[in-house]
Amino acid sequence: MLEAAKPRPTSLFTAIHIEGQKARERAKQQAASENATKRRADLGDLINLGNVEIRRVKPTKTEKRSKIGQDKVISYALWERGLGDGIPGRIQELKKRKVRVVDQARPGRAAVNPLSSKAANFLVSKADQLKSARV
What we know:
The structure is a single chain. By secondary structure, this protein is mainly alpha-helical. 65% of the residues lie in helices and 0% in strands. It folds into 2 domains: 1-57, no CATH class; 60-107, no CATH class. The chain is built from 7 helices and no strands.
């Protein structure tokens, strides 16, 4: 009954934070022996990670541009230390996508039909005619 009396969260953002809080409270109540065993990371752990960002609203174009700038700075710093190739990860992903699209667009060698002897002779005669007309 106590749960039914509580108001429901109005947004997904608040619901995630409430679930994370509950998960952290459960983790505190567990015994030390249970903590020693391996377990999957729960929502409370995921919220506290440095590379996870939960937002109420979508990022604006300005925020996206600043994120891209940070990506460039980080990749350059890694390159200076000899830990990367200096190309931001976002650009590498775009190049991989382009290569994949180009590979799909080109027909394979097996799909190309060879010329018949009649067509080949015709092309040779046309080439000879064009050469003699130029000279």
